[in-house]
Amino acid sequence: MNTNNPLIVQSDSTLLLEVNNPEFARARDAVSVFAHLEKSPEHIHTYVITPLSLWNAASLGITPDDVVGRLETFSKYHVPQNVCQDIFELMGRYGQFSLVARGERLVLKTKNIDTLNHLIIHPKITPLVGEKLADDEVGVEPKNRGVLKQCFISIGFPIKDLAGYVDGAPYSISLRDTCRSGGEFGIRKYQKQAAESYFGDSAGPGGNGVVVLPCGAGKTVVGLYVMSLLKRQTLILVTSITAARQWKQEIVDKTDVGEKDIGEYSGESKVIKPITLATYQILTYRKKKSDAFVHFSLFNRENWGLIIYDEVHLLPAPVFKFTAEIQARRRLGLTATLVREDGHEKDVFSLIGPKKYDVPWKDLERQGWIATAKCIEIRVDLPSSEKLRYLSCASREQIRLAYENPHKLPVARELLDTHREDQVLIMGQYLSQIDEFAKEFSIPVITGSTPNARRISLYERFRKGNIKRLILSKVGNFAVDLPDANVAIQISGSFGSRQEEAQRLGRILRPKEKGGQAAFYSIVTRESRELDFAMKRQLFLTEQGYAYDIQYREVE
Fold it and tell me: 10 Å Cβ neighbour count for 494?
């Protein structure tokens, strides 16, 4: 016990961390591996230890002793006994059950025979298992592999899947030493570590899992490196046609794969090749809600040796269903954040795989791999004429009124004047607001309805510096490679989405040729629901070690 320490561990498994303590940064890095940040006001940050956060830690090789040791190192007071007991209990469940291959069948094995006997009579599990093979073993049909893992994690027992994978069709792919576009190319140390973590070792075989890296840190390169090591036909799932074509550009630029071997499976093209890029949108397409998904056969149409899920935090819920049926194929998830707004984190864990690699954004910033960034929130009042109307509106109307506050326009004008020589992105949620800003400042706009040819043209002109301003709707959140963007102005967002905050900040974090700091501005309405959402979004930035500078603007 040391009352100078920054951490208080409470009996409900919440952790209170003092921001202004000299040991804050070390303690934050120590606990964030096994606890989730829940609140981040000025002086005390609140973390919570959850079963999933502990299982992810266990998947990285962290033991219960490690977790308790970190808590004791930084805690002011004695760590409550019940918290320690829960940590040992929950982390002890990870891997208590394992799936192994035996001939054409799978076998669920355990050392906990009593628990196995209770679970196999569970109404959700009974249809998924076969006969008892021994006291500690039960047979499982391969087709039930994914669904069984979903069921077990839902009742608190994540299965360790050691059943292996089909090889998939061979396909030779090697990384280049020199990019086709010119310049040297090499794997960074952390990218290599990420790929090696995905593959695992004899103690923890890999072949499935999620790599978490910030936007601009080269998640695509990690995917290419994994492909070059496996040398198998690969299906890559992406968020949009724009993302598919950026992946294709990277593959052609950094590997020996020719364009003729890369297919696109989207709303515009249905070409399958040894390396195929497919959009989530086409995979989840169906004419009516009651119809089958027309394109799900793509998962098994070729003998894929690897399936890559880009931006896995955005994976549509229907794709989980089919992912449950292809557990014999290697799966790699890539993302900047594991935060999901739909509560499917456990499905990512059980079906794509546990988190295999993560690195704090600020660490990569210090090493120069992503741009340094300052985050500034500018708060403005509603016009006097709108304040009374705001109070009388229904909740959703209040939110929209706050987001579309006309006082945001002069603040944006001031910022554009300040950053006249910079590459600036303006990002918003509401199309009417986006159109208003576009007309006011004569800036081109990209929304979901913008034709792909025009999107590609505008992105290319922005990259070349032919235009220095671009306004993006939600489409700008996803997998847009704009390396020279160094200023982002957020004028509205998705109801406090931490996921969106990660993506938007990521748009300006790619290293700049001339160095320099990136700036991320959020303009929010004071004394409104938007301010509540803004505080929730800040959680993500706080998790990554960023701090917001809060400013106020008086608008005449």
Answer: 15
Separation of alpha carbons 353 and 197, rounded Å: 12
pLDDT on residue 455 = 85
- Mean of pLDDT values over 2-8: 93
Q: What is the pLDDT of residue 204?
A: 62
The helix, strand and coil proportions of the chain, stated in percent and rounded to the nearest 5, come to: 40, 20, 40
User: What is the CA angle 453-455-460, rounded to 5?
Assistant: 95
Beta bridge partners of 108: 99, 138
Three-class SS of 173-199: CCECCECCCCCECCCCHHHHHHHHHHH
- Output the pLDDT for position 534: 81
**Single-letter residue type at 48:** V
Hey, what long-range contacts does 268-276 have (CB within 8 A, 24 or more apart)?
268/241, 268/452, 272/298, 272/301, 272/302, 274/169, 274/171, 274/233, 274/234, 275/171, 275/173, 275/227, 275/233, 275/234, 275/236, 275/251, 276/234, 276/235, 276/236, 276/302
- Asked if 311 and 502 touch (Cβ cutoff 8 Å), the reply is no
Write the DSSP assignment of 457-519 as a string of letters. HHHHHHHTTS--EEEE-GGGGSS---TT--EEEE---STT-HHHHHHHHHTT-SPPTT---EE
**pTM, entire model:** 0.81
Q: Calculate mean pLDDT across residues 157-181.
A: 92
- Please determine, for residue 251, whether its predicted confidence score (pLDDT) is greater than 60: yes
- pLDDT for position 476: 66
Task: Return d(Cα 69, Cα 125) in angstroms, integer.
Answer: 36
User: 């913008």: which residue's tokens?
Assistant: 450
pLDDT of residue 483: 62
- State the Cα–Cα distance between residues 115 and 543, nearest whole angstrom: 37
pLDDT (0 to 100) of residue 61: 85
Strand, coil or helix: what is 245?
A: helix
pLDDT tens profile 320-329: 777 887 888 9
d(CA 509, CA 487): 10
Q: To 5 degrees, how large is the angle CA 169–CA 172–CA 176?
A: 150
Other beta carbons within 10 Å of 358: 18
Q: How far is CA 370 from CA 114, 324, 513, in A?
A: 51, 35, 11
List strands edge to edge, sheet with 234-238: 262-265, 275-279, 234-238, 306-310, 330-335, 208-212, 355-358
Q: Minimal CA–CA distance to 217: which of 374, 359, 348, 338? A: 359
Residues 48-62, mean pLDDT to the nearest whole number: 90
Q: At what angle do helices 51-59 and 81-93 cross, to 10 degrees?
A: 60
What is 47-84 written as a DSSP string? EE--HHHHHHHHHTT--HHHHHHHHHHHBSSPPPHHHH
* Residue 51 to residue 31: CA distance in whole angstroms: 14
552, β-bridge pairs: 379
Q: Would you give the DSSP letter of residue 217?
A: S
Query: 495 - beta bridge partners?
Result: none
Name every residue whose Cβ is closer than 8 Å to that of residue 85 and which is 6 or more positions away in sequence. none
Judged by phi (left if over 0) then psi (alpha if -120 to 50, else beta), residue 327 lies in alpha
The DSSP call for residue 552 is E
